[in-house]
Amino acid sequence: MIEWQNAYNDLKRRYLVQSRERLQQIESLIAQMNDQSEPLVIIKQIRHHFHWLAGSGGIYGMPELTSLGKEAEQYCENCVESAGVASASIGQKLQKFVESARNAFAEGEQLVPGKSKVSRDEDTESRDILVVDHDPNRRAKFHDLFKEHAARIEFALNYSEAAALMASKTFDGLIVSIPLDGGSGYELVEKFRSLAESDAQAALIVGQQAGFLDKVQAIHCGADGFFEEPFVLEDLAERMRFLLEVPKAPDYRVLYVEDDPYQSEFVRVVLSAAGYDIEICSNEKTFDAALTSHQPDLVMLDIMLPDVSGYELAKYLRQNEAYATLPIIFVTTESKIDAKIRAAKAGGDEYLIKPVPPSLLLSTVAAKLERARFLKSLLHRDGLTKLLTHSAFMSMAKMVLARKVRQPEKSIGLIIIDIDSFKSINDKYGHPVGDRVIVSLANLLRRRMRKSDLVGRYGGEEFVIIVEDLRESEVIALAERLLTDFAEIEHPAQDEKFHSSFSAGVAMLDSANMELGDWVNAADGALLHAKQTGRNRVVKGPIAAPAKQ
After folding, report:
1. What residues are annotated to the active site?
2. What is the pLDDT of residues 353-388, one digit of tens each?
3. Distance separating alpha carbons of residues 51 and 269, to the nearest angstrom
4. Checking CA distances to 203, which of 59, 365, 513, 543 falls within 20 to 30 Å?
5. Distance separating alpha carbons of residues 219 and 221, to the nearest angstrom
6. What is the pLDDT of residues 439-480, one digit of tens each?
7. Rounded to two decimals, what is the model's pTM?
8. In sequence order, which ranges of 159-274 are alpha helices (DSSP H)?
9. Cβ-count burial of 495 within 10 angstroms (0-12 exposed, 13-18 middle, 19+ buried)?
10. HSE-CB for 59 with a 13 A CA cutoff
11. Helix (H, G, I), strand (E, B) or coil at 164
12. CA–CA distances in Å: residue 241 to residues 127, 147, 299
């Protein structure tokens, strides 16, 4: 993760300089109190300034400012509730708060550190998995399964062999079968966690006749899951693949609704330095437009906003089914239990009290995004292939079409694939074998396509792919390469192995003359032509209608 400390220190320097202006504004309001016919209006404005102080002081390492701001804010609130006439004593009390704040700011200026050394975590695409299992048949199956997922796998027979391997290199994943010869499998997972270089590394335990306490112990030692025998090896391999395929932070978009520029800038610095794409909405009236344009994966809300409360914005989101799984985090100075209850009723997923330590902010955002990603995978991923479902793919295709309208120069291609003679495969070898052929093609597409490409299961044995920034000739060459690679795969069936093939139709998007349905029909027509002219081929569309005789 990118080091954010330098940016944070620079932000703190600016905050301390600009804070003097804020204190001068408070003093100016205090001076106006006795000259106003409605002094309580002035006190409300002063309360707003102290509310800012309560929320911003602690985030810059000055917790005494947070306490001071909360105390002054409560004092102003009491004055407003009592509806008393502003007096010299009230002004004197508020002035004391200002002087205390000025002293705290002066001390804070002495504590700003210099530049710190920037460090980056090394990122790698390799996936090395250690399997600790004494069953030779299962080890062979593991090898074949993870080969499909483009992972390198090493084996150990007992605790000592596994410990020696972990000491010599870093593994992304660990699978331990218990009971384990020469030591405890739970202790091996703990050792794996102690040597781990990041939280992205995954560990799974498999065992026989596991009781509740065994599963609890597996969680306690740091395992991400416990598979009780008998289990389906493909399910375990798929779970490991999911755990290791965590999207990078830049894939996530965060929308933060906050009218305090200091607080919003702090959050921007911390999250953007960690790689998140963050958008600040400083005016709640533009919230709906920000939702549409930014398409956030997570929303953060302040509660005390000028015209609309954070509770109301959360309720607005929850009324829309499109945002049913969207994580909502409240970030506020309100620490009363009533406020937390209202936040939960409004649909909030987390409640953070300002000042929020950067580490807590980062861990909370990461946890909520990961949970949302898992839920989306259940909702939008096909159960057999783990690719996008038909509806999820078409929904994302609409967004691609909208981008093409805004960026007409982009080259975007659609590929529709259909496995040849698939009914014959099911009739001859059975549906389980047919399913494995479908999964083999899905795994091939997952390995060969870029993360930015959209890949989905269109239905049955049909698949769809959208690729951007490739010319038509390049899209056709890609489809032909996939066709060749798939034809080389051996599919086991009982005592024999067989090969399969597919046909494909390709259509480039012409946004000036095509709607989504036209685009799909063009590729589908090309696929039909490929089927009718011999199968096992790629045809580009749209296909011209035959001339009338």
Report:
1. 461
2. 887 888 788 889 988 988 887 777 777 888 888 899
3. 21
4. 365
5. 6
6. 999 999 988 888 788 999 999 999 999 999 899 999 999 999
7. 0.52
8. 159-168, 185-195, 212-221, 233-244, 261-273
9. exposed
10. 33
11. helix
12. 9, 11, 28
